Predict the structure.
Amino acid sequence: MFNHLFSPITINGLQIKNRIAYPSLGLLYAYDRKLNDRYYHFFKEIAAGGAGIVTVGPVGIDYLGSGIVTLALTDDQDIPSFKKLTDIIRNEGASPWIQLFHAGAYSYPITIGNQQPMAPSALFSKYSKSMPREMTIEDIKTTQMAYADAAERAKAAGFDGVEILASAGYLITQFLSPVKNQRKDEYGGSLGNRLRFPRELLQQVRTRVGKDYPMTVRMAGNDFVPGSNTDEETPLIAQAYETAGVDMINVTGGWHESRVPQLPMELPRGCYAYLALNIKKAVSVPVMASNRIASPRDAEDILRNGFADMVNLGRVLIADPQWPTKAAQGKENEIRPCVGCSQGCTDSVFSGKPVYCIGNPRAGFEGERVIKKSASPKRIMVVGAGVAGLEAAVTASQAGHQVEIYEKRDRIGGQIWIAGTPPNKQELWEFARYYKAMVNKYQIPLHLNCTVSLDMIRGKKPDHVILAEGAQALSPPIPGLDEPGVLSSWTVLEDSPLLGKEVAVIGGGAVGVETAMFIAHKGTLTPDMLHFLFAYDAVPPLKLKEYMFRGSSRVTIFEMMDKAGNGIGKSTKWVALSNLERYGVKVMTQSKVLSAHNGIIRYENTDGIHEKSFDTLVVAAGSRSVKTLSAQLEKENIPFTPIGDGVRPGKLDDAIHGGFLAALNV
């Protein structure tokens, strides 16, 4: 079914079993630059899942360019620990590769002993919030040699190939960019001069590792930074890399500081494959595509349509390391989804914390969260088929327990259907697909349209009850919010009722922002409409943009705090807030709603008390736990475990991880 995806490919004489690569992703499983058991367990799981290439990294080539939070291969004493890792990866059937990097101006001073970072030019970095010093010629030569030294150690450690990181805004990208490189010597100015640093570096690495050793480079297809390299210049850069001895080119999107989303679900699946094709047209070596390649069909289509020769599956394989094996076996419905939320991966790294996955409770905990068959299987009653209850049911079944699920509604998924309703959030519905497949796989009896009572539990006599009662929308004690016509955000997202021209959303946290976006999006052009009108020049482009972002309602958010978006992940909050502006949503911060009678909101801000009339009022003020059965079971002699929002309203990872751990601890 996926013939292209699972065909072999040869890279400089090295045969790779399929076209799937796990790329380098920062994990932060150590703060001493050293490998440890957590890394070994993680990469063992990734390699066992069936990927052709498993890339370890990023791995620093010196201290100033990587600091204490990144793995490093800066000394021969590091070789044995990496040799242990390459043996683990190879024994699981994958080809071990390594990515070498230097952050340049992106180095955080706190991670390099409060030293000053170095970069091509002394320009303040908004990313690291620091001023680097300009590299001397001696710095340049020393750094190039450090890359070659590290590559030689990587070969000695048993890696099948080495990748040089030249994307995301790190050191090599800084040399290439006219925005970051303002040198006046032979390493600055023209594109040819700016290419000198990476070209010399690659040539030195090639000399050191030999002509038959695979070497790749990961590059930006477009920096997506004003004034920097675009997809006009990047093919020329790729050609220079090929001339310098690169055997394959790994193409990704822009920099970390780009204002174009690179990873979250806002980015359509496979959107940046066109960048890989742009490079592929310019070179003769194989090319990899990256960024938001979520499903086997997405990956197969990229290869089948000639966009690239291989695909990178990064966060996708963190969400489910078995993705390749399941795809090869025709079990793609059983793939645990990566929904592009960026919470457990990108947000964690940017906060200096280890990577985990909201949807995969074992990611990052492979050595400790092990599902074992129970020595004394129990009859378990799972009440509630939201994601918490579903994860608990599937995990308990995998552990050998006899499980049944009871759900009061007519479908599984719970609040996931509400959470996935706002624009660009539909990926969240993939959890419903996954859990449906797993319930079927383990033949777990599922009782829909079934409200569970205490008497029913008494009659069933389970050994243990896992209780996922969920939550209800919360309405704050503001006069007027109990009047007819006032809607909750849950009702708006679930039922999509007809709304007025002027809509107020009371509450500007994560739910309020997403509800406002859903409302503002109603009545705008769909992608198909836009494509048609644009293709036929039916409407001027500026007018099309207006129709894209101005719908049937004007929306105003009222938020008491000084900023909106509380509860949205660090790496995606800017996307959400910029979308509010793009769709014309007015955000009233530091605005306390005093009353809301007859559609008239009376509110107080720093300028005093004001009134404004609206056609529709929507309340987005959070939720409260439902504890009906849990309160009753506390008085009974029936063992039970409350999970999910029934314990306290939380995020998706609280529900999924909580359900998993509850089942593990039965």
